[in-house]
Amino acid sequence: MGAQLTRTASWRARGLGLPLATVIGVVGCGAALPAARTAPAARGGTVTWAQPAGATPNYIFPMLPGADYSIQNLYDLNPLMYRPLYWYDRGGQIAYNSKLSLADPPVFSASGGRTVVTIRLKPARWSDGRPVTTRDVRFWLDLLIANAANWGAFVPGEFPSDLVAERYSSPTTFSLTFNRVYNHYWILDSQLFGLYPIPQHAWDRTSLHGSVGNYDETHSGAQAVYRFLNTQSTSLATWATNPLWRVVDGPWRLAQFDATTGYTAFIPNPRYSGPVKPSFSRFVELPFTSDTAEFNALRAGAVDYGYIPIQDVSQTAFIRSHGYRIAPWITWTIGYAPVNFTNVTVAPVLSQLYVRQAMQHLVDQPAYIRDIFKGLATPTYGPVPAGLPSPFLSAGDRHNAYPYDPAAAVRLLRSHGWTVRPDGSSTCAHPGVGAGRCGAGIAGGTPLSFSMLYDSGYLALAQMMQALKSSFSRAGITLSLTTAPFNTVIATVDPCDKQTGVGCHWDIGDWQDPIGWSYDPYPSGDELFMPGAFDNSGNYSNQVTTADVLATDRRPGLQPMYGYENYLATQAPVLWLPDPDYQVSAIRTSLSGVLPQAPNLYITPENWRHT
Fold first, then answer.
1. In angstroms, rounded to a whole number, what is the distance separating the alpha carbons of residues 574 and 402?
2. Number of compact structural domains in the chain
3. Co-location of 339 and 466 in the same domain
């Protein structure tokens, strides 16, 4: 791809080593940039927000690797300081928000069987007064292209691999040419969704005290810059003092971070160019080791914006009577646990569709939603979220292809050569391939036994895991449960290396804390079910699914989406589980501007005000 990608930057004085501000002054093209000015000062005070139990930010550079591609980094940390080019959330709906985006809506055109997208930046400035320009966009793309395999949202063949040309015609205007004609909605909501300007004038370096250059313009240089920024990002203890992270274009700048506890405090960026400036002088994200600890703090009035754990929703009236509004936070997400198709020990068993079907028949989603989540969850029957109104959800995906039925699970296993021992250990009695056989690669005597790693600190999730273990035992499937902090789980349940076997020791993982997968606006299966995608944790691969996913990206209309989700729901590529509401939010009644809560989990404390 690299040899085919064409870049032009007609407005840059290439090779002259001129500062960016000088180059802009020389060429004088594009829209007039705003003079550096300071936003109105915040009115003062501190507002506090409760982080999810056991889950804290751990990566500050916005180009997140897969092991750190978490809600806490994607939504609770990075966007407060570094704004994506396009913002999604408008009035609590998954929708493009032109007002909060750094660029005007893209202009689409076609050329030679390819899609061309032309984008014009709005006037904006970095916190050090320098303008946000297309050079900052190119810097992001240069680093991404040279290090794409490390990016948590990378899908082979997709962004940025699907780019064939870039053209930077002015400090405010650039165009991207994609390698074929694509669905415009998919480009805007999936491909351009992950595009950030980042401060080239401050970050294009290979050491903290080295000079800034144009290192990103070569492949090796872009790799060296990425290595440097990645190293700085993983040095959590230096975040608040590192001069790199003080250059921001978002409404907030990091003031304090405790690498041990995850305590995170922000102060306003006085040069923020957005339409709404912070009113608080300090925004604090409070960490908690468990949801019980958070609830105790909420009961004590120590949190302005917290949550009521599922197991404590009976105390909602008490919390409301002590000065809080209650608002369930429903999200654009699905619940599931990935299964590992690469672990040499369990892959032969989990690769059998009938085994996954039997397992799905043992997941009692209605009971878990009723008894554990107190009705504050949505069933997941397939890959498209069902908790919010959406044109993407098919009629077929609204129904469970494998309703809870232990007898059906037992029949499936027996008909494929297993000796089923309810409340014991089922084993393969008839190995081999063919009718009545266990399947390829499964030796006689192989037990139906799996380990499951899940998040600690979230009581409702622990209760569901215990219920799942009990249910699985009804078909003689042994589920060994192990718990760990969220950051440990997500770093473990990653795509493992098929060549070396590194990272392939897990069987089933669940990093719902408290929710599962949060989509980019377009609910395609690119990042979850395409071979080689970083978030395809278990390395699921299916030719029909791959073709269906590509159809959702390339063909117009909704029928390709319906076909994709209906097929995948029957394939059970993961263990479909209930999707709990993100939280039952408790918001101090004096705090306004919080509702509606963003279904894609953005938090925007710059909008909040004390009344």
1. 13
2. 2
3. yes
CA dihedral 580, 582, 588, 592 (to 10 degrees): -130
CA 209 to each of CA 142, 223, 510: distance values in angstroms, whole numbers, following the listed order: 22, 18, 41
Q: Using pLDDT thresholds of 50, 70 and 90, give the confidence band for residue 58.
A: very high
CATH number of the domain within which 475 lies: 3.10.105.10
Residues 288-320 pLDDT 10s: 999 999 999 999 999 999 999 988 999 999 999
Q: What angle do CA 68, 70, 74 make, to 5 degrees?
A: 105
The number of CA neighbours under 13 Å toward the Cβ of 547 is 5
- Whole-number Å distance between alpha carbons of 507 and 515: 20
Sequence-ordered strand ranges (E) for 301-380: 305-308, 324-329, 333-338, 377-378
| 213 and 357 together in one domain | no
Residue 294 lies in a domain: no
Q: Measured at the alpha carbon of residue 490, what is the angle toward residues 362 and 207, in degrees to the nearest 5?
A: 170
Q: What are the strands, taking DSSP E only, across 26-78?
A: 46-50
Would you say 193 and 84 are in contact if contact means Cβ atoms under 8 Å apart? yes
273 in a domain, yes or no?
no
Give the residue numbers spanning the domain of 568.
333-402+448-580
**How far, in Å, CA of 539 to CA of 12, rounded?**
43
* Both structure tokens of 521: 């606006």
Last residue of a domain, one of 220, 235, 250: 235
Clarify whether residues 218 and 339 are in a common domain. Answer: no
Do 368 and 510 belong to one domain? yes
Identify residue 15 by its one-letter amino acid code: G
Q: Is 339 helix (H, G, I), strand (E, B) or coil?
A: strand
Tokens coding 408: 């059906």
First to last CA, the chain: 54
How many other C-beta atoms can be found within 10 angstroms of the C-beta atom of residue 491?
18
CA distance 288 to 356: 35
Encoding tokens for residue 505? 């020791």
Joined tokens for residue 284: 């604090």
Q: Which 3 state secondary structure label does DSSP give 108? A: strand
Q: Are residues 231 and 355 in the same domain?
A: no
110, 231: one domain: yes
The CATH number for 144's domain is: 3.90.76.10
pLDDT tens by residue, 336-379: 999 999 998 999 999 999 999 999 999 999 999 999 999 999 99
Q: pTM to 2 decimals?
A: 0.81
Pairing relationship of beta strands 579-580 and 377-378 according to DSSP bridges = antiparallel
